[in-house]
């Protein structure tokens, strides 16, 4: 069998290599990958070769938002799983440390995460993964839909961190894929009102087509929101979003962008605002897949471009060429 893989060899350098087909360990499954979404982190590694302390020092297979079919299993895994369509949760924790035992396995210091140096990712013909992190997709779900369980999981985790419930008035700043998925999750959680802001007229148009209220990010935002999901990573969005919160409002910082932002301490104190961050997710994949399968979270309007594995570099550079784009997906395999 061949295992064509999209390998990031250096900054702005992707090569398609035929790598050995991996052999699953006793607790692992071998997955023939069929669809992989392109994430902003993939683009960042392509453009800069690093994210924070994670530095590309050797060639690395790119990609981590994937779905495929189990083709083989390790000795400790039920052989009946062969043939399952699965969404791959890309981070496998140690399950022994303090954070894992507390249920916060996303904060495990020893997590092995696809396409985070030095770990290879999943734009490849075949990958192996711990069987517990290959989540069976609901019947009828397309591979590209199942692959979106990864970014939808970010929205699920953000909603949980914010404690979104019936009646909440949610402000989502940033109408990229994460913001649009997070908004849909908030609505599914019972939010009475969801407003999305952005500077892009195209992205705001998509948000309106999904049924959300919208506002330009450079306008004065109405107040009274009980929850802020900040998905842009832009400093001004953090500041304006916090000002738009009602007393006792909850803010969740989701987007990665500015390393430092200015926050009004009197505002936070005077309104008793709560601010937290999110780092990936934990125990979200079953919920994310169920939301997609039920139609509560629509993926089709966000998947604007599709590429073959051989076109991975074009997928990584899509945003440069096509401002009116959202999510690129690499479709490959049989």
Report the span from N to C terminus.
12 Å
Number of DSSP strands?
20
The helix tally amounts to 11
Rg computed from alpha carbons, rounded to a whole number of angstroms: 20 Å
Give the structural class. alpha/beta
Weakly predicted, low-confidence segments: none
Strand content: 25-35%
Sheet bearing the most strands, described? Answer: 7 strands, mixed
Tell me, briefly, the overall form.
globular
Helical residue percent band = 25-40%
Mean pLDDT: 96
Summarize the SSE layout with pairings.
Layout (H helix, E strand, L loop, with lengths): L3 E7 L2 E6 L9 E10 L2 H9 L1 E2 L2 E2 L4 E2 L3 E9 L11 E4 L2 E2 L5 H4 L10 E2 L12 E5 L3 E3 L6 H5 L1 H14 L6 E5 L3 H12 L4 E6 L2 H9 L3 E4 L8 E6 L4 H9 L1 E9 L11 H7 L2 E4 L7 H10 L8 E6 L3 H5 L1 H4 L5 E5 L3
Parallel strand pairs: 13-14, 13-16, 14-15, 16-17, 17-18, 19-20
Antiparallel strand pairs: 1-2, 1-6, 3-7, 3-11, 3-20, 4-5, 7-8, 8-12, 9-10
């Amino acid at each position: 069998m061949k295992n064509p893989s999209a390998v990031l060899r250096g900054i702005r350098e992707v090569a398609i290599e035929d790598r050995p087909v991996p052999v699953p360990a006793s607790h692992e499954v071998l997955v023939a990958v069929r669809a992989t979404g392109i994430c902003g982190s993939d683009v960042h590694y392509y453009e800069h070769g690093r994210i924070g302390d994670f530095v590309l020092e050797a060639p690395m297979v790119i990609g981590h938002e994937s779905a495929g079919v189990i083709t083989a299993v390790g000795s400790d895994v039920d052989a009946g799983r062969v043939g399952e369509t699965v969404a791959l949760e890309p981070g496998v924790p140690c399950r022994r440390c303090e954070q894992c035992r507390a249920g916060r396995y996303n904060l495990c210091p020893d997590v092995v995460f696809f396409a985070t140096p030095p770990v290879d990712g999943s734009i490849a013909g075949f990958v192996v993964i711990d069987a517990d992190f290959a989540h069976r997709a609901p019947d009828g779900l397309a591979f590209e839909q199942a692959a979106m369980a990864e970014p939808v999981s970010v929205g699920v985790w953000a909603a949980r961190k914010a404690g979104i419930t019936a009646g909440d008035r949610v402000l989502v700043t940033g109408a990229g894929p994460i913001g649009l998925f997070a908004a849909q999750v908030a609505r599914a959680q019972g939010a009475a009102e969801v407003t999305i802001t952005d500077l892009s007229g195209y992205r705001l148009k998509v948000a309106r087509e999904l049924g959300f209220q919208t506002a330009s990010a450079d306008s004065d935002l109405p107040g009274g929101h009980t929850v802020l999901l900040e998905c842009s990573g832009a400093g001004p969005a953090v500041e304006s979003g916090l000002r738009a919160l009602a007393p006792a409002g909850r803010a969740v910082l989701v987007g990665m962008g500015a390393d430092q932002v200015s926050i009004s301490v009197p505002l936070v104190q005077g309104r008793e605002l709560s601010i937290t961050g999110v780092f990936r997710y934990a125990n979200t994949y079953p919920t994310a897949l169920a939301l997609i399968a039920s139609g509560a979270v629509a993926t089709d309007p966000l998947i604007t471009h599709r590429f073959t594995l051989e076109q991975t570099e074009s997928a990584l550079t899509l945003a440069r060429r096509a401002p009116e784009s959202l999510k690129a997906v690499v479709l490959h395999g049989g």
